Amino acid sequence: MEYKIASGHSLTNPNRINYTNGINSTAIFDIIIIIAIITILVIFLWLTIQTIRKRIRIKYANLVFQYSSRYKAITNLNSLYLFNVLEKKYNYRWFVNSKQKYDRFDFRKQFKETVRENPSYFLTISEKAAYNNDLYKKYKNEVIKLPDFSEKNGSRLKYNFKRFSKYEHKICDNELLHPVINPIFECTVRYTSPAGRNSYCNFRSFSSDMIYSLIDEIQKDNKRKDSTAYQRSLMTPTLRYNILKRDGFKCLLCGRSAEDGIKLHVDHIIPVSKGGKTIYSNLRTLCNECNQGKSDKYDSSGVV
């Protein structure tokens, strides 16, 4: 029912009921229910498939354990070999506080210092890796002699041989031992600018074989240091006096003596740090000024 007004316009009866919102709400609710049911069915189907696949895996794994001669031979062989347990990768990190230090970062030098702090630890890893490597060569030679994979036997076939063969290959391959024979030492350096806008990262890896080279260098460094300390310890007061007396208590470079207000030193012509010995032929008298100017410099003439 409509009410006419003078202008010719009409107004809808305010008592009229609008069903549009109710219909839309019901449709949306039905759609949500349908989607939920489909989702549940899909999940149920997926879980059912996964359960079936799991049962198949267990079934054929048990068949491999029971009938595969190769699998049994591998497990017997594995029981005879005991490899060292090592990590495949050992990580070492450094953080520097300037871009210049980052650009000039010497990986070999820094890693060498790390090895120097605990050489026995790194040597043990390298020796274990070398042991694994030697033993693994023997192991692989024995694997070659193992029985081959199963062949199809129609007279006693009670399962899908193609599927059995697939699982036999996978299980046997996974059963083979793969020891760590060459662990990697990965060194990483990082730098982040003060404002955090730029970050830099670089890395370098060293093999376990490199450890032997670094330890050899470290041992040589230690021997050289020990030798230097020993040679300097040979400079006794008696030897020092004898050299001063031999040289007339004068500096052999400038000719001055203690009377000229300088101090006299007994100097190694070939510096101890360069392999020089504390013997008469390698010692001379120098004043403090000439000795400081000479420092550790040396040439074959022996003048400087």
From TrEMBL:
The keyword Membrane applies. Residues 238-292 form the HNH nuclease domain. This is HNH nuclease domain-containing protein. GO terms for molecular function: endonuclease activity; nucleic acid binding; zinc ion binding. The keyword Transmembrane helix applies. Keywords: Membrane, Transmembrane, Transmembrane helix. It holds the Pfam family HNH. The chain crosses the membrane at residues 27-49. It comes from Butyrivibrio fibrisolvens.
